[in-house]
Amino acid sequence: MKWYDIFSNFYDSSLEKLYFSSRKRAIELLDLKDNQTIIDIACGTGANFKHIKTSNHNFTLYGTDYSSGMLKKGQDSIEKNSWTNTFLFQADARELTLSSIENFTGKKISFDRVICVLGLSVIPEWEMVLDNLIGLLNENGKIVIVDVFAEKRNLNTWLVEKVAKADLNRRIWQTLKIKTDNFHQEYLPVKESKVGGKLFVAVGTKRRK
Ligand SMILES: C[S@@+](CC[C@H](N)C(=O)[O-])C[C@H]1O[C@@H](n2cnc3c(N)ncnc32)[C@H](O)[C@@H]1O
């Protein structure tokens, strides 16, 4: 069994409070509009979904993750909340392309919004994955990333990396800045000691060809 399958049993109870307001801010920056199609990459237990759903628009939401345990929790919460137009599928983010997603949906698809919260510090080959995620977007589509960067490493950094199987040395926002237009980044008000570094949200728009 993979670590995140085990972690799924206590992920929300140990972390939900800590990240609640940061998720809200990330969804604000996602700037959702009616009838959009959104994908949440490495969606885990679906902790972003309730924030997306409260924005009260009529959109289609896909969530994908590598861990069947995390997805099971996500599916439970979709059913418990009776969320419609919300679909989960299991995939390795390194292999995500529009055509691999179309195998799941059974129809042609592209996305207006991509969100990835605390995923790119965990997923291997994150630079290639980030390229692929931008590739999922329609023209003018937006991508929002939330993650942690440890400018000064300390014991908490090491602990968080061990527990989350993460690498907090990745300057993810810098790469997003190079690859998108209308880039914006801000730090989120969560203590560095709690998350092992600075929690940030970064947003960019797909560059025109
Ligand atoms: C720290 S959790 C974040 C979960 C969720 N996005 C959140 O905001 O709470 C990292 C997630 O990345 C997923 N993950 C790790 N490697 C992955 C991969 N190669 N492809 C897809 N998901 C992956 C894990 O299963 C886990 O759910």
Secondary structure category: alpha/beta
* Assembly classification: single chain
Distinct compounds present: S-adenosylmethionine
Measure the end-to-end span.
42 Å
Strand content: 25-35%
Q: What is the CATH topology?
A: Rossmann fold
- Residues in helix, %: 40-55%
Mean pLDDT: 95
Number of helical elements: 9
Biggest sheet statistics: 7 strands, mixed
Structure commentary:
This protein is of the alpha/beta class and 209 residues long. The chain has one domain (3-206): Vaccinia Virus protein VP39 (Rossmann fold), CATH 3.40.50. Helix content is 41%, strand content 25%. The protein has nine helices and seven strands; from the N terminus they run H-H-E-H-E-H-E-H-E-H-E-H-H-E-H-E. It has helices at 3-7, 11-30, 49-54, 68-81, 98-105, 126-135, 155-164, 172-179, 192-195; strands at residues 37-41, 60-65, 86-90, 111-117, 137-149, 180-187, 198-206. Strands 3-2-1-4-5-7-6 form a seven-stranded mixed β-sheet. Strand 2 (60-65), helix 4 (68-81) and strand 3 form a beta-alpha-beta unit. Helix 6 (126-135) packs parallel to helix 8. It is globular, with a radius of gyration of 16 Å. The structure holds S-adenosylmethionine. Residues 4, 42-44, 47-48, 65-67, 70, 92-94, 117-119, 122-123, 164 line the site of S-adenosylmethionine.
